[in-house]
Design a protein that fits this description.
Length: about 100
């Protein structure tokens, strides 16, 4: 059974969001970490707020990483490494 386009897009969509949440904390410095104590915190903001989130950079990396992982998964599926019989045996479930 082959993936339909809508199934492949749904899998990529879920994978993209998982990878986004993995990449969000990388390279983030809070106002407290960046400044010299509480004097450098912008008034009215939390000291843990990021100085510069660089979301465009993170969205680009998320898309690239998701594409690679999705491609590897599709390759493994088409080679027969990811099929229901093999996965159920791996998890110890009867098929």
């Amino acid at each position: 059974m082959a993936y339909s386009v809508s199934t492949a897009l749904a899998i990529y969509f879920v994978l993209w969001w998982v990878v986004l949440f993995v990449t969000l904390p990388f390279g983030v410095r809070s106002q407290h970490e960046d400044g010299e104590g509480a004097g450098q915190v912008t008034p009215g903001t939390d000291p843990g707020a990021p100085v510069m989130a660089r979301m465009g950079y993170k969205l680009l990396w998320t898309t690239l990483i998701s594409g690679v992982v999705f491609g590897i998964g599709m390759w493994a599926y088409h080679q027969g490494y990811l099929n229901i019989e093999r996965l159920s045996k791996l998890m110890g479930l009867p098929f």
